[in-house]
Design brief:
The protein is α/β, with parallel strands linked by helices. The chain has 13 helices and 10 strands. The chain folds into 2 domains: 214 residues, Rossmann fold (3-Layer(aba) Sandwich), CATH 3.40.50.1100; 94 residues, Rossmann fold, CATH 3.40.50.1100. Helices cover 47% and strands 15% of the residues.
Length: 323
């Protein structure tokens, strides 16, 4: 998979008809903490509070063109992908059936319902919910929205386009990895713009399928993915995403839930921005690699701010949410 700069600019024109571009700021408070010039791409400032909305805009536009008779979509999510898909599907006159695992974020579930989704709990984790979504889509004649698809990635890549156009001299960008649309979009935007920026993937040490796969040179599933950074809570890697990040990422770093919690506290105390677990993971990785990044110009993707209140209270009290 690859995109030309024109393909990404066309995607950006479409995306920004439905949401405003998000800002990127170099925060001196974070620079003091990290030891390097630190640019934050604020995807917590989209209309759903997360970067996934971008991919939903391009994907639903594609569905309306490719499947004009479709009555709706079906997908699985831990929350942010589902919010974006629901928002765009309902706006396009489609129904949105969204599967989540049991015990999913209460507030993300409520947000998806507010955007018009029918939210169904199934299974013990994302991958079990995903399997059920595929089955139901086939049975009910709905268009399946997979976790990784060219049109999803083309939309998501627009945040990379914005960041790397605004700050083309970034040495490194840290990006969280769940199923992989975020890191792949960033890699493909970098490549389309002809830049040399290093892209570093970030996984939870409790959901390290992407890192283990790259190290093994093949897809490696894990038995569990128990992390409160639910956007990274994936057991089963995606081949098409692996094909991109295994070649295009400089390295993949793992972070603990305690490190993620500390990064959430840093975001709030330093710059008063809310970050969910996966949203804070790139900053956690940069903090872990402070010595390596000393004096460089670095970007971190704050991919979302949709953290449940109880978890946020736990984190800001110095704790780590237990899942």
């Amino acid at each position: 998979m690859q995109f030309t700069a024109d393909e990404l600019r066309d995607a950006h024109a479409l995306v920004t008809r439905h949401m405003a571009p998000t800002p990127q700021y170099a925060w001196p408070q974070l620079a003091a903490r990290t030891g390097c010039e630190t640019w934050v791409k604020h995807e917590n400032h989209t209309a759903t509070g997360a970067f996934k909305l971008r991919g939903a805009i391009t994907f639903i536009d594609w569905v309306r063109r490719e499947y004009p008779q479709a009555r709706g979509i079906c997908t699985a999510t831990r929350g942010n992908h589902g919010q974006g898909q629901a928002r765009q599907a309902v706006a396009a006159g489609l129904i949105a059936k969204v599967y989540v695992p049991r015990g999913n974020s209460v507030e993300k579930n409520a947000a998806m319902r507010a955007f018009g989704a029918e939210v169904v709990e199934h299974g013990d984790d994302f991958d079990e919910a995903r399997e059920e979504a595929y089955r139901v889509a086939e049975a009910e004649g709905l268009v399946i929205v997979p976790p990784f698809h060219r049109e999803l990635v083309r939309g998501v890549a627009t945040y990379g386009l914005e960041l790397l156009t605004a700050v083309p001299d970034l040495d490194t960008v840290y990006v969280a990895i769940g199923c992989g649309s975020g890191i792949c979009g960033t890699i493909l935007a970098r490549d389309a713009l002809g830049l040399k920026t290093e892209i570093v993937g970030v996984v939870s040490e409790n959901a390290a399928t992407a890192k283990l796969s790259v190290e093994a040179g093949r897809l490696v599933e894990t038995n569990s993915a128990a992390t409160f950074a639910d956007g990274m809570s994936v057991r089963v890697p995606v081949q098409a995403a692996y094909d991109i990040y295994s070649k295009g990422a400089s390295r993949i770093v793992s972070v603990s839930d305690a490190e993620v919690a500390e990064a959430i506290r840093a975001y709030y105390r330093d710059i008063h921005n809310l970050a969910e677990g996966a949203g804070a993971a790139p900053l956690a990785a940069l903090m872990q690699e402070r010595e390596r990044m000393a004096g460089k110009t670095v970007g971190v993707i704050l991919g979302g701010g949709n953290i449940d209140t109880d978890w946020f209270v736990t984190v800001m009290s110095g704790g780590v949410p237990v899942v």
